[in-house]
Structure formats: structure tokens, C-alpha cells
Amino acid sequence: MERVIGTDELEPGGRASVFVDDIPALVVRIGDSYYVIEDVCSHDGQPLADGPIVDCSIACPRHGAKFDLNTGAALCMPATQAIRTFETEIKDGAVWAKPV
């Protein structure tokens, strides 16, 4: 696992762009839960970093494709393929992640 960000660096509702094993990723904090997803829409390759987050999903800001933050599953068109998620662990005051 790789340390990606300190837990004190993200407020609830916050997000941060990071790299995990040289893969562009996005850390999202919802309450006390942290999610790490690949920061690339499977529909057109655009970053998801600025997309709206509702409940536990993120929408691509370009075409509105939605993805589940837990599983990476595509939740609506135009995306038909999931995005990569990362296994996460909270330890020593930091978020640690590795590709699944």
C-alpha cells in the first residue's frame, strides 16, 4: 500500500487529486469514509475530479456518466464500463491505497 494523503488534509465532502502507483487517482471523503478511484471517466477519458458527488457516486462533469465510489460501477449512460477503484486503509493518520 502507498500513503496518498493525510486524513487531516481532507474535510468531510472534500476531494484531492493524487497518484497511486503512477495512476492518476481521486481521494473523496464522505463523512469519515475515504474512497480512492481512478480519476478518468471510462466513457471519454476525462478527469472526474470536478464532478458532482451525490450520496456515494460521482458524475463526470463533461457528459454526466455516473460511477459508484465503492465499486467503480458505471451507474448510467453514456458510460458502460466501470472505473478502477483502489483498496484503501486508514492508518497512522493517513489514507493508504493500492490498485485492486
CATH architecture: 3-layer Sandwich
Ranges where pLDDT stays below 50 over 5 or more residues in a row are: none
Query: What order do the helices and strands follow?
Result: EEEEEEEEE
The helix content, as a percent range, equals under 10%
Compute the number of structural domains: 1
Biggest sheet layout: 3 strands, antiparallel
Average pLDDT works out at 96
| Apparent shape | globular
Using the CA coordinates, give the radius of gyration. Answer: 12 Å
Distance between the termini: 11 Å
Number of helices: 0
**What is the CATH topology classification name?**
Rieske Iron-sulfur Protein
For this structure, what is the CATH homologous superfamily? Rieske [2Fe-2S] iron-sulphur domain
Estimate the strand proportion: over 45%
Report the count of strand segments.
9
Assembly state of the chains shown: single chain
The secondary structure category is: mainly beta
Layout: helices, strands, pairs:
Blueprint: E1 2-6, E2 15-20, E3 23-30, E4 33-38, E5 53-54, E6 57-59, E7 66-68, E8 86-91, E9 94-99
Antiparallel strand pairs: 1-9, 2-3, 3-4, 5-6, 6-7, 8-9
Summarize the structure.
The chain has 100 residues and is an all-beta fold.
Can you characterise this structure?
The protein is mainly β and 100 residues long. The chain is built from no helices and nine strands. It has a three-stranded antiparallel β-sheet with strand order 1-9-8, with no helix packed on it. A three-stranded antiparallel β-sheet has the order 2-3-4, with no helix packed on it. It is globular. The model has no long low-confidence stretch (mean pLDDT 96).
